[in-house]
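Researcher: We're teaching a course module on how sequence relates to structure. For the next exercise, students receive a sequence and then see the predicted structure as tokens, so they can try to spot secondary structure elements on their own. Here is the exercise chain.
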Amino acid sequence: MAVGTMIGASIFTMLGLGAKIAGPNLPLVFVLSGLLALFVAYSYAHLGKRYVSNAGPIEFIVRGVGDSLITGALAILFWFSFVVSIALFARGFAGYLLPLLHLPQTGPVHALAEAAVVAAFTALNFFGSKAVGRAEFWIVLVKLSVLGAFVVLGIWTINPDWVTPRFDPAHLRGTLYGAAIFFLSYMGFGLVTNASENLENPEVNVPRAIYLSILIVSIVYVSVALVAVGNLALPELLKAEEYALAEAAKPFLGSFGYVLVSLGALFSISSALNATLYGGANIAYALARQGQLPKIFERKTWFSAPEGLYATALLGLVFALAFDLSGIAGITSSVMIMIYLFVIASHYRLLRRGQADGNPWFVLLSFVAVAVVFLVLQAYQWNQSRSAFWATLAAFILALAFEAVYRGATRREIHERGAGK
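Model: And here is the predicted structure for the students to work with:
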């Protein structure tokens, strides 16, 4: 599920955006963002093996920081990150489906395709984790096969000049912006902790799954970016922003490559949407059980009370209709980076109390690195997507306000729920 979510997040839906920001430095962007992801993964792995809870990072923050208004607001923002990710996948799915079927990419048709794919995977999630897991395995297998064929067949026709990194100020700035935005593309590793209660031997398998998923996805990202940027001129990639990878297959596979990659994209985005809907609904349930979201989000069974699933899917569709790809990506990245900063800070505090393992100096370095990424991302949003900047700020303010009102009305407290060692 982690691999499925990560690959669907960037390679198919955001490759054109990445080429627009970083140009020939796009493969380097994926290397840098993967290294940044490892900083965060270090804390997730150490905390995830010790505190087993489907609440994932929110459990870690509660353990490290304790009950507070900010903790409750972060819980709401964490669920919100799943909502916005679903919007990203829905837009990406429509972006590949409509050209493949030769349908007009007008607003109503785009909206109908987005609504259809969200509805389909919402229905699948009614059947529980086993059905989701089985579907995810086969979908991921298909899309990795397609991407593998794309890399193996396209690597021989790469134009070296198109993938040679540029280090002038403009390209360096684009590389930094790209690394901040594509940091989002690795956020799927966190889903491992959101399913930790359902894993066998989580003390061993949580860290293993986190690091393996990042390694696998890093290899895929860098390889596909090299082949795509190396086979299609930058203006052509930019022209086909929402279905750029399919266009990149045309020079060496012709129309067959376009169809093959488009089908792979549909499988890929479907798997990401499937895993995120499951994770989003799952986290809404876990947090509601823990008292960190209102009862309306609690889903006691898959069939009788699916409010969490409904709310996650419906709001995801609303954001898909309201924002473009870069705006959606920026909002999701900002929210998740804020969560990551609090997880790393919680890890450090637990280390100081002797309640976690790890190197405190590396944890401090991780915090500084991720904080810099957050500032770079805000600068990019301010310069390139002012509406996304204000939407991100509004999300933070509204989460705090909502938590303050809800906490005042119910007088409830946040308690640790997961098993700890």
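Model: If you want an answer key for the exercise: The chain has a mean pLDDT of 81. The chain has one domain: 2-412.
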